[in-house]
Known about the structure:
This protein is α/β, with parallel strands linked by helices. 37% of the residues lie in helices and 14% in strands. It contains 15 helices and eleven strands. The strands form two sheets. It has an eight-stranded mixed β-sheet with strand order 1-4-3-2-5-8-7-9, sandwiched between helices. Strands 6-11-10 form a three-stranded mixed β-sheet. Helix 6 (180-191) packs across helix 7 (199-207). The two termini are 34 Å apart.
Amino acid sequence: MILSQTGPAKYNRAVVLCGDENVVDYARFVFWQVAKNDPDRAYDLVFCTPVEGLDARHPRLPEIRVCEIDTASLQDMPTRPAIPIANHIKVALPEIFRNDYEQIIYLDTDVYLRHGKLTDLFSLADRDRPVAAILDGIQWHEKLYEFARQSWATLGIDNIRYFNAGVQLFNVEAYCSANIKDRVVEYAADNFQHFNFTDQDALNGVLRGNWHPLPLEWNWQASETQFRLIRKFDPHLLHFVGTSKPYITVKTPYTRRYRNTYVRFSEDILEKPFVPINRPENNVLAIRNQSPVQRILKGLDLVNPFSYTGLYRYTEVLRTRKSIEKIRAAIRNRTALWPPEARDRGDPDA
Length: 350
């Protein structure tokens, strides 16, 4: 499936990002952070793309192995403007690099490494499971959102732990032996009309809980509530899920503080002006799904001096904090704690 590459594998492990020309600079940013925090790393940095001639390398960055990928086997995966075929390469990574790597850490291009070494993340894998990942932020709360409940009930995955696909640690041989890539593509083709999160729903639909839970700090999914808990839990990796990303908009207070790091990286490392990614259809979709009351409240948040501070929505933040503490304890102790409904019934771990 590799059509061309800038060089062979040097190690038996890799950190891989995937994307097209719209996100290549954000992939470079992530590689820069990873290398800066882990100077003695013993793993490759790999960028996978379906775009011929797209080169993620830069003379002021660490060595990046760039691979052009044939995506013909992924054509049944659903796409839309904000989720091109490049995003789905992740489900094929173990198959693509089966002869190169034993372990692969996959990262979305919208993650931000606050501190820590990915060498430490490799050590957290369970070699008996094909995937190690982090519980999706939807399940960090006591109650599920209704849209997720309805979708998962239709897909038959409403009573399992459900992971976020933005940070994954692949056990390559276990993944390939179980033929997961082909099963994911087939599942997506049959069920995409019920999906909210495309390849993430497909991966969870196929694995159905057969994945190893990693600490939440390695994929801190940055909703408004979780952002107010960063100081408390000190996560390693932030994940700017949704449309509130510091390189898209300056209006969201809880992501705005990280924008200058992207600007400095572009100007000092890439030696070019910072140009925010332009995908307006994301914002149009987000606004369309909001009620009139939600739009008014969002507008008030921008002028409210207490917005996005510890005093704002204090009760909601406190409930979420307690829920996260229970989940963290369950991950440490390998006990059943997801989803909340299963926890309340005392159901065994799925």
